[in-house]
Amino acid sequence: MKEVRLMKGNEVIAEAAVRAGCDGYFGYPITPQTEVIETLMEMKPWETTGMVVLQAESEIASINMVYGAASCGKRVMTSSSSPGISLMSEGLSYLAGAELPCLVLNVQRGGPGLGTIQPSQSDYFLATKAGGHGDFRMIVLAPNSVQEMYDFVSLGFELAFKYRNPVMMLSDGVIGQMMEKVMLSAPVPRMTDEYIKEHYGDWALTGKFGGRAGNIVTSLELDPAIQEQVNEKLQAKYQKITEQEVRYEEILCDDAEYFMVAFGSAARICSKVIEMARADGYKVGLIRPVTLYPYPSKVIAQRAQQAKGFLTVELNAGQMVEDVRLCVGNHIPVEYYGRMGGMVPTPGEVYEALKDKIINKLK
Amino acid sequence: MAAEVEIKEENLVYGKNRLIKDNIMHYCPGCSHGTIHKLVAEVIDEMGLEGECIGVSPVGCSVFAYNYIDIDWAEAAHGRACAVATGIKRMYPNKMVFTYQGDGDLAAIGTGETIHACNRGENIVVIYVNNAIYGMTGGQMSPTTLVGMKTATTPYGRDPRLHGYPYKVADMVAHLEGVCYVTRQSVHTPANVRKAKKALRKAFENAMAGKGLSLVEFVATCNSGWKLSPVAANQWLEENMFPSYPLGDIKDI
Questions:
Q1: Residue B8 resides in a domain
Q2: Strand (E) positions, A238-326?
Q3: Interface-testing mutation among A65, A94, A222, with chain B (most B C-beta atoms within 10 A)
Q4: B164 domain residue, yes or no
Q5: Which partner for B180 in A214, B18, B38, B212 could form a disulfide, CB atoms 3.0-4.6 Å apart?
Q6: What does the mean pLDDT of chain A come to?
Q7: Sequence-distant (≥ 6) Cβ neighbours of residue B183 within 8 angstroms
Q8: Which chain A residues in 327-346 lie under 8 Å from chain B, judged by CB atoms?
């Protein structure tokens, strides 16, 4: 049964969680994502699907409740915004180290510090490269619409369990706060305890059964030779993820000479810029990474063969541009344009930057 | 060379509980952890909870509790055991969930998580081993270190003007409505071991009955950290720890 509704990005997360058969949400209020827990509390899913919703005393507690619940083989999540995600860094590292599946939504706001409550994309580095201490990676999904906010909840759970790894949905205050039409899918039931025992009983904390020894969820190993093997196993998993899970969208790239690369709300702005540029006769295309880790490096490297120049558009000081430069190399310009601190550029501003930094220099 | 001693079945009065694994314990001789582990294993076994139990081990000396008691375990980040236990218990409300934490883990870095799990009245047991020192990192001051006590970070003794006063967690959480049972025990004499086991069993029964959170504090020795022999540490415990951390039930409803 498909259902179409007009919904706010943050509210749709609550609807998506319940419909995806989520077992538990643990969160702490922070703008601009507080509607997620408010909506869940209003929905009272514990009376329908049995999903647990708990307001924790801090983001540190939230992520550690997620760690405990994920240890049980359950489908669990949290959400926060940038300063709260900083507090979760330790927990994210433990989740990755113990190979636990979970979904963490970051509705980004401007920083550093307490910063602003307005939208930003300045946690790109945090999400893709520095989620916490130690060599670990999260799968990072970047929605650019309310529909993708909805879709990426079930996709996030699917990937989290496929790889037993934390998945971060990297959204921002624009997508979280805006209202759009969204197509809701039919609800999926929660996993039964029997299903969990059958499928995850070799690692999940279900209580001992069937004569098995106690399961231990830990990321601790004192012997460095063994810890290195643990790390090698994790790296092999990340390698597999980079080979199998790259997702991106290309808009008008086949004949393009100039490329913009942008994700999330910045990509929405860029799709308008393409229309403006094409109307003026400039062959401009957009590559939108949907997974920020793994990064669509191959497609960017391939498009670099036909490109005269690249412009990344980001709501930050230029973070993803470093990754695009790694893909493209030095033979053509790779420039960045963005606004910071919660400012969102208009399509006109971005178009001017595209002309100034790329098109007019290469004409 | 020790002679082989044959113990006849009818003479066997004591054995290692079957839930205690064969792994060699890393605890120092004289440390209270070994005895407390034994009690935990016995209570779980005697209550028939082997398949119902999920433990949460801390960061500190007892981080490896999971290597010694054969049940399901999660190892938590430093101080976060009560949050981790909350996540587990909320997923499996009928399971027996407990944390095992030292004073550094529970009373310092984990203060927030502990107080709020208590205040929510999570139906779990918190086993709190207070030896007034950080053992694993080599004997530094903890919040429960006694005034005047010398540690690696208070080499001239704990001065309250600099470091504040011994922090009495059990007295504090007893005021919270979500907490049903708070008791202080020790395992330094056979009589105390027996009392402590009864207290632990009551705590486990409370959790299974959904009465709220039970906190069992073990006033314990760290003879290595205290730089005393095991016997002298037991005496020091009585003379110095008990006046600040008197044994007995603080709350039982």
A1: no
A2: 248-251, 258-261, 284-289, 291-293, 309-314
A3: A65
A4: yes
A5: B212
A6: 97
A7: B170, B199, B202, B203, B215, B216, B217, B248, B249, B250, B252
A8: none
Smallest Cα distance from A222 to chain B, Å: 11
Q: Chain B: residue nearest A213 by CA? A: B70
**B149: its two tokens:** 């006590």
Q: CA torsion, points A264, A269, A273, A274, in degrees to nearest 10?
A: 40
Range of the domain at B75: 26-252
- Domains and their CATH numbers in chain A: 3-193 (3.40.50.970), 249-362 (3.40.50.920)
Residues A205, B112: C-beta atoms closer than 8 Å: no
Cα distance between residue B193 and residue B153, in whole Å: 32
Domains of chain B: total: 1
Q: What is the CATH number of the domain that holds B130?
A: 3.40.50.970
B80 interface with A at CB cutoff 8 Å: yes
- Is-contact A358 A333, C-beta < 8 A? yes
CB contact B41 to A (< 8 Å) = no
What's the complex ipTM?
0.97
pLDDT, residue B163, reads: 97
Inter-chain residue contact A91 with B80, CB threshold 8 Å: yes
In this predicted structure, the answer to whether residue A143 has a pLDDT above a threshold of 90 is yes
The shortest CB-CB distance from B74 to any of A60, A71, A206 is to A71
Chain B segment 81-140 residues within 8 A of A by beta carbon are: 83-88, 90-92, 95, 112-113, 116
Q: Could you tell me how far CA B203 lies from the centroid of its own chain?
A: 13
Average the pLDDT over A99-116 and give the result: 97
The tens-digit pLDDT sequence of chain B (253 residues) is 566 777 888 888 888 999 999 999 999 999 999 999 999 999 999 999 999 999 999 999 999 999 999 999 999 999 999 999 999 999 999 999 999 999 999 999 999 999 999 999 999 999 999 999 999 999 999 999 999 999 999 999 999 999 999 999 999 999 999 999 999 999 999 999 999 999 999 999 999 999 999 999 999 999 999 999 999 999 999 999 999 999 999 999 9
Domain membership of residue B138 (yes or no) is: yes
Rounded mean pLDDT, A8-18: 98
Q: Is B45 in CB contact (< 8 Å) with chain A?
A: no
Residue B154 lies in a domain: yes
B66 contacts in chain A (CB < 8 Å): 214, 216, 218
Taking a C-beta distance cutoff of 8 angstroms, is the pair B109, B79 a contact?
yes
Radius of gyration of chain A from its Cα atoms, rounded to whole angstroms = 21
**How close, in Å, is residue B89 to chain A by CA atoms?**
8
Is A58:A80 a contact under the CB 8 Å cutoff? Answer: no
Tokens of A349: 């501003």
Task: Tell me the pairing of strands A166-172 and A258-261.
Answer: unpaired
Contacts of B86 in chain A (CB under 8 A): 54, 61, 65, 68
Instruction: Please give, rounded to a whole number of angstroms, the shortest distance from the CA of A241 to a CA of chain B.
Output: 26
Amino acid at A232: E
The pLDDT-based confidence of A1 (bands split at 50, 70, 90) is low
- Nearest chain A residue to B99, by CA: A68
